[in-house]
Amino acid sequence: MSDHRELKERTRSVYPFFLSYRTRWIDNDQYSHINNAVYYHLFDSVVNAYLIDHAHLDPSQSSLIGLVVSSFCHFFSPLSFPAVLDLGLRVTRLGSSSVTYEVAVFGQGEQQPSAVGGYTHVFVDRSTRKSAPIHSDMKAGLRRILTPASKL
Fold it and tell me: What are phi and psi for residue 85, nearest 5 degrees?
């Protein structure tokens, strides 16, 4: 994982896939900014939208499911309702049964992220819950957004 300063300096060009998200009133906390927990909802939404639309995942039928084994988020500037957000996604590591995603949360049209985070999925067999290789069609979809991870 990259250091805080390096993550803050990321720009849109690093992320090959984007999804827009319109914030909701309920996303704000008592301090009138998006609650920290909502960022993990955003990460999950952009990752799964990509997996479903571009990597052949059918959440209710696929023989493999992804389990989150680690996650992180660095916050740089607040966002709040009624903002529209641009969620940038890239894969930083792709193994035989695991994938690490990085998500940047940008205010609509902004060049610097307000937050950068992500998580690692380990894919397992739906019924046995044992680690299993990522299917070739899913792996091909994930390779399309694979970019080298930054070094510390």
Answer: -110, 150
CB 90 within 8 A of CB 15: yes
Rounded (to 5) percent helix, strand, coil in the chain: 25, 35, 40
What SS3 state is found at 100?
Answer: strand
Question: Nearest to residue 11, comparing CAs of 141, 142, 152, 147?
Answer: 147
Mean pLDDT of 4-28: 93
Phi, psi (rounded to 5 degrees) for 44: -60, -40
Q: 72-82 in b/e burial notation, b at 16+ Cβ within 10 A? A: ebbbbeebbee
Tell me the torsion sign for CA atoms 56, 59, 65, 66: positive
- pLDDT category of residue 49 using cuts at 50, 70 and 90: very high
Look up the pTM and report it.
0.93
Rounded Cα–Cα distance for residues 134 and 115 (Å): 29
C-alpha dihedral sign at 132, 138, 139, 142: negative
Cα 142 from Cα 140, distance rounded (Å): 5
- 132 CB-contact burial (10 Å; exposed 0-12 / middle 13-18 / buried 19+): middle
